[in-house]
Amino acid sequence: MASAQPNDAEGLPLEGLRVLEIGHYIAAPFATRLLADLGAEVIKIEPPVSGDPVRKWGAAEDGHTYWWSVHGRNKKCVTLDLKSEEGRALLKDLVAQSDALVENLRPGQLARLGFDDAQLHEIRRDLVICHVSGYGLTGPLADRACFGAIGEALGGLRHLSNHTPGTTDLPPVRVGISIGDSLAGLYAAIAVLAGLWSKSPKGRVADVALTESVLSVMEGVLPEYGATGLVREPSGGRISTAAPTNAFPTADGGWVLIAANSDALFRTLCEVMERPDMADDPCYRDNPARCRNVDALEAEIGAWTRRYDAKSLERRLAQADIPSSRVYTAADIAEDEQYNARRMVQWVDDPKLGKVLHPGTVPMFGSSSRDVRWTGPSIGAHNRDVYGGLLSLDEAQLDRLSRNGTI
């Protein structure tokens, strides 16, 4: 049995923090899931009956989706009609008991309900408020509708994730997940922690835009354009400034990504290929030369990789300590020895779905920090726990609020 890591006995780092979520779809709920995974008490507010629309996204069993099992995990889910007077009164009470609030309603919608930043700070002076929106709270596009995919387009990612120019008439390629929303969620989680760390007697207000979250990770795209006027173009599987770095075909129809772009790694790769002559070829002698002659170089490597199936090729490269990997599917991830050893993949009991395969918590604070405390709850599952426990409403009050549709 592996020895426990030093942090295992210390509890989760965000225990004692209470975060209120008025979120739907992906960005804000993703941010609060990260905080909940790290121990924060997250109270998620949803409309009565319907709940968050993302509950119905993806593969499902008896109406319960597998994604929701992860997306809503470790949160307390309550229902609340924010359009009703009693609902807004309950929200006021919840704000008073919370350290932070994360929301991604349309800009201004929370204010129209009577909860602008000033009013929220009247209720809880040191409340950290994080607004997540498509374009941010100011500027000419602030009121426009936006989803993560639009953020990816406006932030420049869809352009770079596209096929290489001139190879196809197909639309620009999507990354495959809602990466724009996830990036905004990461920044929102950082914003909450930064606001709390500032220890301001008057709570801080963070403004996180999907579009800006994508743009912020675009490496040198903007400064390179500013300095040279050149627009970076899609490069397919390659890195335009380092070679060889690409996915190469295998005999069994798979792909193995090889990143041997330093001179020392490239020489090692040539030895593994039994082509030591390539390392001294003027066309490949250093990285600038390899980049200039990348088509010919990749053709040489591809001819070699096609002689092996993906797993045996992966073993050969690993033995030589060349950065490399098969291009993983979900099945590969589930079976991976490293992920399983660190519990980054784990089977979790879901009351509605049975065993569900979950990704672990990132970052890890000792192996026990990756324990999933509970899976995505049913709509209103924690109404009695939150309204009865935290706000001290009695059973008669709870029953009345339930009957009249407030909760």
From TrEMBL:
MF-aspect GO terms: transferase activity
Any matching Pfam family: CoA_transf_3
Gene3D superfamilies given in the database record: Crotonobetainyl-coa:carnitine coa-transferase, domain 1, formyl-coa transferase, domain 3
Keywords, comma-separated and alphabetical: Transferase
PANTHER family referenced in this protein's UniProt entry, alphabetically: SUCCINATE--HYDROXYMETHYLGLUTARATE COA-TRANSFERASE
Listed name of the protein: CoA transferase
Species name: Microvirga splendida
